[in-house]
Amino acid sequence: MSALFAAADLPLSPGAPGSYLVLARKYRSQTFADLVGQEALVTTLTNAITTGRLHHAYLLTGIRGVGKTSTARILAKALNCPGGPSATWDEQDPIIQAITQGHHPDVLEYDAASHTGKDDVIDLFQGVNYRPVQGQYKVYIIDEVHMLSKQAFNALLKTLEEPPAYVKFIFATTEIEKVPITVLSRCMRFDLKRIPAQLLEQHFAAILQQENLQAEPAALQLIARAADGSVRDGLSLLDQAIAQAGGSVVTTATVTTMLGLADRARVYQLLGHLTQGEAAPLLTLFDEMYALGQDPLLLLVDLLTTIHLLTRLKLIPTLATAPSLTELERTHAVPLANQLTLGNINRLYQVLLHALGEAKTAERPHEAVAMALLRASHLANLPPVDALLQQLQKLNPQLATPAVAPGTEAASPVAMAAATATPGGGKPQPTPMA
Q1: Range 264-380: architecture per CATH
Q2: Which fold has domain 197-259?
Q3: What pLDDT is attached to residue 236?
Q4: Which of 34, 58, 232, 288 has its CB 3.0 to 4.6 Å from that of 29, i.e. a possible disulfide?
């Protein structure tokens, strides 16, 4: 039956072959205090443990790497620690160490991604009617529970509905919508949220300090943003950056190269040419970046991310002084956001977003992106439709509100204005007759 359970993070002796432990495992949360960015979850669980209001089944959901499995193991420690249940314990206690290393007889961890069938669940629960050997509770941790088959869920339901008093279930999943409602209704659900980039950056800085390593603040910001709210993803990227730096300071240039990002200053320079409609400098700079190895699709993603930042700066003025902004964003993004109208920023985002979909299927993505940038630069400075309507009415009031012939429909002023603004100065097309 031991083959059903996930491998534990067993400690390795220093100097032994393969003794290096990746940061994501070395700094896995071991107590409630270690959990990063999950204050609401920690408060609820510690209050439940303190007051003795323990549910028989918990369901933890969230994106990968936010602490679902770690929380399940921490909860198992809280339930079975000496003198427990308790929200605090001695991490060096043999019982706690047994849970940490995965060989406690009463804490059974099951990988549903590898064992999805009905027989697997029956095998797992064959000892459910036997009391715990060492601890106060038998704890069943089922990771990726959504991977269980329909028959396996049915085999689970009866035990889940009326378990013995000494049995606790902890389920973890990244796809909550695949878990049957019959299971959801029997569990206390916790949604683990994405970790804010600023909090991830602080967490990574603290880890580097413990590792006696250094990194530029801007490099940690890039890693924290690339992690997209996942602690594990961020630590994996940090591990990669440390290896690439060769033990020296992790620089912004190192992380930029590692992530395949464009030089941020060049992205803002390219965006400046684009918003000013400067086609020749725009193409020249784009070709230079492509010659240096910049992926055209990643460049579009960088531009979209930057334009999204401009939108937020436009709508939330206080963001301009927020500590989460890098110095480069303060000196480039803030002035650019002040220069552009919200309508032009939104139009630019839509054009480039559409171009990204086209470039992904193009035989020559470089050319597709170049043409999209030219198209966007032509449309960037067009006035809003309302302004076009006002100009149209001033020039020719009758043209702005044309007479309607019997049996026909008039083109709307918005449609006329949009037609007038057609790239290349094209003439409005006649409205087809019914």
Answers
A1: Up-down Bundle (1.20)
A2: Helicase, Ruva Protein; domain 3 (1.10.8)
A3: 93
A4: 34
